[in-house]
Every structure is written in C-alpha cells, then in structure tokens.
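Teaching assistant's notes for section 4

Start the section by putting this record on the projector. Ask students to predict, before seeing the second block, whether Glycosyltransferase, GT2 family will look compact or extended. Collect guesses on the board.
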Amino acid sequence: MGGIPMTAADARTAGRNDIDATTVTVVIVNYNSGPWLGRALRGLARQSVQGFATLVIDNASTDASADICAAFDRVELIRSDTNLGFASANNRAVERASTEWIVLLNPDAIPLRRWLERLLAEAQRRPDYAIFGCTQLCAHDRHRFDGTGDEVSALGVAWRKRYLERRERIPSGPVFSVCGAALMIRRRDFLALGGFDERFFCYAEDVDLCFRANLRGLRCWHVADACVLHASSTSTSHGVHPFAIYHGYRNLLWTYIKNMPSALLPLPLLGHASLTLLKALLAGDSAARIAYLRALYDAWRGSGPFWRSRAAERAHHTLPVSKLVRQLHWNPLDIPGRRPWRTARRQPPGAA
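Reveal the predicted structure now:
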C-alpha cells in the first residue's frame, strides 16, 4: 500500500532504534467483518516496527471472519458467546492487556506501513498528551480524507473533521476528540477514565471518552502522518443505517448530559433536540425517520442515570469552563455543510 512522503519528523526518527513497539497492544473488535479483518491484520504484519501484541475479540460473529486470525502469528483471538458491543468488548480487551499503550483499531481500518511507528514517535515527543489519533483516508479513494479527528459542537452534535474532503498535507496538532476507529491511549489513563461507557453499546463512545479525558486534563493529539485506510461500511449495505442513526444520536445526547458543565448545558440540549427533529423531518425514508425520533425519545427517557452521574464526573474535572469554551465548535453555519459523522458512519464492527 502506498504511503505518504517522508516528513521532517520522519527524517528525525529514521533509523532510530528507541521506538519500542513491545509497549503496545493492538485491540481489534470484530463483528462479521468479512475479509476486512484479514486486510487489517496484514497491515499490522507489515508495520515498520514490530514486537507489539495483537488481540482480536470477536463479538459472536456469524460469518467466518474470526477464523482469519489463525493465519497470522502472534495474534490472540478471544471469542465471545454473545455480542458485547463495541464499548464493552474493548473494555474487556484492555483489562486483559498489560502493556503501557493500547491501540484501538477497527477491522475496516487498514494501517499503512509506518502508522504505528509515527504514533509512538509522536508520543515520545509529546509526553504531556494522553490520547493520539491518526489520519483516516477513504479506503476506496485514498485521495480523500475519511477524518482527521472529531469536531465536537457546543450545539449537541459531533462530526469527523475534513470528512470526504480532498486529501492535502495537514499539520499535526491538538484536537478535542479522536475517532475510535484508530487511536492510541495509555492503558493507565483508559482505566482511570473507566474505559468506554458500556451503556452506549456502540457509537459516540469515543467522543464521550475524549470529552471526559479533556475535562480531567488529559489532552488529545492528532498525528497527521500516521495513516489508515478506513472503509466505514463493513457491516451493513450502503446508506445510513437506522441502527447507526439511533445509537449515534441517542448516545451523543447522553454524552452531553454526562459531561457538559451546567453553565453551557442548555445549548447542546436544545441544539441536539432541534437538529435531531430536523433530521427526522428531512429523512428520505420512514426507517430513518423513526430511528431519529426513537433516538431522541429513548435518550430522554433513559437519561436519568446520566443526570445522576454528573456530580461524580464533576469531581474529577480540572479543565476551566473558559478553556472548554475555546475548544468546542460554535459556528452553527458549519453544521449543515459538514455531515455529522455519527450519521455518516454505517453500522460498525462490534455492533448488533
């Protein structure tokens, strides 16, 4: 697979032998991913740094995708008798691992050769950051971005930055949130945060994790030249799946209820409700329309535990509200021009 030209950072790290990949466990949650899982594992086998552990947890797939693991050395497969969901399966895998770093990788995210090397090199240079994301390119058109981190709006939605935009060289830098399809985090920080919220099952669990991390002073960094090819559609047919709509919009509202400081909370509550109703009104088919409406109804009906957990979450907050305000996206005119990424993604590996 083609990479991207060597950068100044690459020139500094070329030939270095102090990048220790044995400090990493790569976790893949698989659910009916078909041949994509094999492509992801081949991408890992071709990495420029080796010695990392690979742990695949299969969520009771009904296809033969998990059997692909037998063709690869140093890949541990755990089969679950039930579909645990993306959040819970990742939590179980992280608990089982013992390395300093955890890398979460979707089976439909194929890493380019120097992906892990670049993540680890950036982590060495920036020890004050806890979570590292990477550039996602469209698997079917690597001249377009699939995402360069997540934009989190003060109005109750989130989307992938630069989604489907033409590929260009972009700088690495701080972001508020990174996509869970391919991210690296210190294991101790993941555990201290409580991992993914298993009540979400799947979708928005990465936004929620990064939101909590930021509020606790654990920052996220986007590594621009660490690239994966991301398919985003391994588990359903083309189009926005009602499953994705439902879980995405339900879970985003729970994310804001859990995490947004009280002074700012009315904005995302009103914004999320308004945008969800607008999406339902504009939906092209009845299944999608029902999914939006169910998401909003069930999010409010099931919000009690999230309201009650706000005090416990606030006890860990160290980020001043003034700094949070500067990190959120505020321009409402940007939202229609950028697809909120929770509706752009289809049903992921690990979903029901």
